[in-house]
Amino acid sequence: MFVSAVFLREPLCPLWLKLFAAITALTLTTACRIDMHVQPRQNPLSRSDFFTDQRSERPPVEGTVARGQLHEDTYFYTGKIGNNPGDVMPFPVTREVLDRGRERYNIFCAPCHSRVGDGNGFVPSRGFARKPPSFHIVRLQKAPVGYFYDVITEGFGIMPDYASQIPPQDRWSIVAYVRALQLSQNATKADVPDGQKIPSDPPHFREPGSGASLPVLAPAHSASEGENREPQEKPEAPEKEEAK
């Protein structure tokens, strides 16, 4: 080895030999890392001779629960009590819940069911094979809330399920909003709270909006102030004196 090193330093040693020796030395020094690249492991879904079923992918241990998947409240995640749909909301229905339900409903449901729930959405009007039923027919008015939740979760007929797009909390919010839609289209005077005008006052807008933006509602106190404000009388114009 010493002789070879001395020979490479000789002026008569050709350049190509020096380059070959350098590349060979570099290759030998990097070969010691080969154990880091070729690891004793199984590739995904590869065959294994260690297990009797020859599968390297092993099923989870019985009773394993993935993080976030401990569905202890069965009714909240299924909408059913036993095998029957329940007819009670699993949490109080507030204005925030209805606002969230309206937002999600307009995104996922209104294209077929329409914004008022009569089944005349944009998709059926463009030739969809089957028009969805109206939420205002007697059968669906009497349907329990768990029925609507189950349809959103599992699908029904040619309607696909929305379990992957809509989380359980939002599904219940949509169900609450569907109930509000049913009430809005079938309400009587007895359902109107005391002090509520019939018909309701039209909304007041702070900004009317354009084709690229939505209108902005004026605050309630501003609208009421505008209504209660008496119109100012215009000052009378002075009479012109007759020309003498």
Outline of this structure?
Helix content is 40%, strand content 4%. It has 244 residues and is mostly helical.
Q: How does this model look, in words?
A:
The chain has eleven helices and four strands. Helix content is 40%, strand content 4%. A two-stranded antiparallel sheet has the order 1-2. Strands 3-4 form a two-stranded antiparallel ribbon. Among the domains are: 2-29, no CATH class; 74-188, Orthogonal Bundle (Cytochrome Bc1 Complex, Chain D, domain 2), CATH 1.10.760. A hairpin with a 2-residue loop joins β1 and β2. The longest helix is centred in the last third of the chain and has 19 residues, at 168-186. The protein has 244 residues and is mainly alpha-helical.
CATH architecture annotation name of the domain at 74-188: Orthogonal Bundle
CATH class membership of the domain at 74-188: Mainly Alpha
- Output the number of helix runs: 11
CATH topology heading of the domain at 74-188: Cytochrome Bc1 Complex, Chain D, domain 2
User: If strands are numbered along the chain, what order do they take across the biggest sheet?
Assistant: 1-2
Number of E strands: 4
pLDDT < 50 stretches: none
Main sheet, how many strands, which sense, barrel? 2 strands, antiparallel
Helix content: 25-40%
- Global Rg: 37 Å
Question: What's the overall average pLDDT, rounded?
Answer: 82
* Morphology call: elongated
CATH superfamily of the domain at 74-188: Cytochrome c-like domain
- Give the termini distance in whole angstroms: 135 Å
Structural class: mainly alpha
Q: Secondary-structure element order, as H and E?
A: HHHHEEHHHHHHEEH
The percentage of residues in β strands lies in: under 5%
